[in-house]
Amino acid sequence: MDIQKVKKILLMGNPNVGKSVVFSRLTGANVIASNYPGSTIEFTKGLMRIEGSKKELIDVPGTYSLEPTNTAEEVAVNMLDEGDLIINVIDSTNLERNLFLTLELLQGNTPVVVALNMWDEAKHNGITINPDELEKLLGVPVVPIVALTGEGIKKLLSRLKDTHTPTDVSQSDAEKWIHIGEIIKKVQTIEHRHHTIWEKISDVTVKPTTGLPIGLGVILLTFFFIRYIGEGLIGYVIEPLFDLYTPVVMEISRAIGPGIFHDIIIGRLIDGNIDYVESMGLLTTGIFVPFGMVLPYILAFYFGLSVLEDTGYLPRLSVLADTIFHKFGLHGCGIVSVFLGLGCNVPGALSTRILETRKQRFISATLLAISIPCMAQIAMIFGILGSYGIEYVLLVFIALIATYVSSGLLLNRYIAGESPELFLEIPPYRRPYGKALLKKTWMRVRIFLTEAIPFVFLGVLFINILYAIGIIDTLGTFFSPVISGIWGLPKEAAAALLIGFLRKDMAIGMLLPLGMDPFQLVIAATVLTIYFPCVATFAVLVRELGIQDLLKSVLLMIAAAIIVGGIMRLILLGF
Amino acid sequence: MIHLELTLTNLQPKQKARILRLEGGFGFQKNVRSRGILEGKIVEVITRQPIGGPIVISIDKRNTAIGRGMASRIIVAVG
Ligand SMILES: Nc1nc2c(ncn2[C@@H]2O[C@H](COP(=O)(O)OP(=O)(O)OP(=O)(O)O)[C@@H](O)[C@H]2O)c(=O)[nH]1
Ligand SMILES: [Mg+2]
User: Which CATH class, in words, describes the domain spanning A3-190?
Assistant: First the structure.
C-alpha cells in the first residue's frame, strides 16, 4: 500500500500486550505502561515519522475482541474507523488467544500489520513461533519485536508498506477459532518447562491463606516506605534548601514594604517572621506547600505505586480483595481506582472505566470522591497533624475507611443496576526496569508540578482577594450552622472549605492558623476530604458520570460530610 | 473411558480438567473464549477465594480469575 497516504496509525491489541511501550518507543512521547490489563483507558495521540513523512500514532486501550465489555474497550472499538492502518500488537507468549482479535481486525477494511511483541519472554518460556509461516497464513506482515528494548521496531516500520486492505472474508466466531487452531499447529512449538520460581510466587501471593497476610504486609511496607522516604527528603533536602531560601524572601519582603502587594507576594509576617504554612503569600506558602510539604511524598508514593504496577502485583490484590469489594457493588478491580486515587483522584476517577456497568462506575467514582484523599492532601495531613502525634493522623484514616465501607454498603443496596463478577487476566510477574520506574515516577511528578502549582498560586491569590474584600466573614457566618453547629469547628474554617475546591492540600494548611485543638483538626481534615472533590477531579467526573449522575454523587458527598463530621464531633468533642 | 462431567466450580485446587463446553448467551461465550478459555483446553484450578469469591484458573500457563457464577457455566471433564 502507499505509505505516503497513511495519516493515522492505530495501535491495537489485547490488554497488557505492550502497546503503550511500543507507542512511547515510536513517538518518544511518554504514556503510562503497567503490568496489568487496563492500564490505558483513554486514547493518546502522538507523532512519528516514516520515510520522511509525519504520521499520527494513536495508543488505544486494550480489548479482547471487538465486542466491548467496558468503557475502556468501547473507546478502543470506537477508534477503529479513525485509522488508515492498524499495528496489531500481540503477546507472543499467548499467541492463540491474541489471534482472535487479529482475525476480527482482518475482517474490517483497515490494513493490518502484526507485531509479535514480548519475543524475549516467549523465547525464555520455550515458545517458538515461525513468523514467516504466520505471515503467509495471515496474509499480512508479521514482525517479532521486543518493545522494551526496541528490538525489531525498525523492521516493523519498514514493513508497514507491505500490507494492504484486507480482502473480504466473512468467518463466524466458531470458524475463527478453528482457523486459529490450524494456524497454531503450523507456526508454534512449545517446549515443556518446569515451574519457575516466579510462577510459584505467583501462586503463593494469590492463595488466600498466604496471599492475604502477604497483601497486608505489602500495603504496610509501601506505607512505611512512603513515610520514610517522604520524611527523609523533607529533613535532609527540603529543610536545608528552605533555610537558604528564607533570607532571600525576607530581603524581598523588606524591599516591598507593607501593603496589599506584600500580602500577595510574601503574605502576612507572623511575629515579624515568615511562616511558610500560614503566611499565604505566593513566594512563601505558594512555594512551600507544593515543594516543601507535598512533593517529597508525591515522589515516594509514585515510586512505590510504579513498583506495584510494574511487577504485576495489583491484579493479585484485586483477586484477594474481590469478595470485600462485592459488598460495595464493585468487584476486585475497584481497588485499582483506590490505589491510583490515593496518588491523585483524577486518574483514579478515569480508571473506573475498566468496570463493566454504570452502577459499578457510579459507586466506584462516588466512593473515590467521598473518601479517598489524594497524596497531596495526605502529605499535608501528616504535616499538620503529625506534630500532635501519629494517632491523630490514624483517626482521620479510620474515619475515612469507615466512611468508604458504610457508603459502599449503602450504595450497593440503593443504586439500581448490575454488579457483574470479576473476570480478570493475571499477568505473570515481571521484573521492573529501573529506568522505566524512574521515568514513570517522573512523568507523574511532572503532571503534579505542571497542573497543581498553577492552582496553588491561584488559590493564594484568591484567598488574599477574598480576605481583602471581606467575603470570608460573610460566608463563615452563613455556613456557621453546619461548620460550628454540626462539626464543632470555628466558622473561619469556611475559607479552607472554599479553597478546598481548588486545592485540598492548601485547604488543610489553612486550618492551622485557626487555633483549633487536635480533635477539631481531625474533624476538619476528614470533612475536607469528603465534602467535595477538587475542581480537577470534578471536571473528570462530569465527563465520566454525566451531569445527572454527578448531581446525585455530589448530594451524597455533602450528605456524607455532614453526617460523618457530625458523628465525629459527637465522639471526639461531645456536645 | 469414564468421563465425569463437572462445572469449573466443582474442581478443587490442583485439580486438572478438560473444558467440554460453555453454557450461556452468545456474549458470555464470546467473552470467555476471547480470554483463551476454549473447548478442549486443559484447565487447572490454582485457588478458590473463600466465601464465594473468584476462582483462579490456569490455561496454557496463563492465570485468570473468574467469578463463580461464570465458572459454573463452564463445563469440564476430569479423568
Ligand atoms: N519482557 C517484555 N515485557 C514487555 C515488553 N513490552 C511490554 N512489556 C511489559 O508488559 C507490560 C504491559 O505493557 P503496556 O505497554 O502497559 O501494555 P498495553 O498493551 O499498553 O496494556 P493496556 O493499556 O492495559 O491495554 C509492562 O509491564 C511492560 O513493561 C516486551 O517486549 N518484553
Ligand atoms: Mg496501554
Answer: alpha beta
